[in-house]
Specification:
Elements lengths: L6 H18 L3 H7 L4 H9 L18 H14 L1 H20 L2 H12 L16
Helix pairs in contact: 1-4, 4-5, 5-6
């Protein structure tokens, strides 16, 4: 038993596991072969609140906290690690924008992100690293 996972988080994890088992896992091999992002699946994840649930409600999130995002990410990753990057990138980029962006500028984009209508990326480098 994980002391950080309460009943609510366990329910979220169970819901994400069912979705991952029923919707994500069956198409894993085809997506892995074709390297095509299934935007329908991404949209479904958004509709279920599985994308950046830790973001504040004012930005389209659910204000659930980072542990909720983590349990969802883990369950999706069990079925398809590549698809789980939708959650990972959304959380990383969504938090940066929600904390540092001007609300009137970032709100429409974050709402699209959490609904599964947009995917954000980030490019990082390290000093003297290229």
């Amino acid at each position: 038993m994980n002391p950080y996972i309460d009943e609510d988080l366990q329910a979220i994890a169970d819901h994400a596991r069912r979705f991952a088992t029923e919707r994500v896992a069956p198409g894993f091999l085809e997506r892995d072969d074709t390297r095509v992002l299934d935007r329908t699946l991404m949209k479904e994840m958004g509709e279920l609140g599985f994308i950046a649930p830790e973001l504040p409600e004012e930005f389209g999130g659910q204000g659930m906290g980072c542990l909720a995002a983590g349990v969802i990410h883990e369950e999706i990753a069990r079925a398809d690690l590549s698809i789980s990057y939708i959650n990972l990138l959304a959380s990383l980029n969504g938090q940066i924008l929600s904390h540092h962006g001007q609300p009137e500028v970032v709100r429409p984009w974050l709402e699209k992100l959490t609904q599964g209508e947009a995917l954000f990326a980030i490019a990082l480098t390290e000093p003297r690293g290229g």
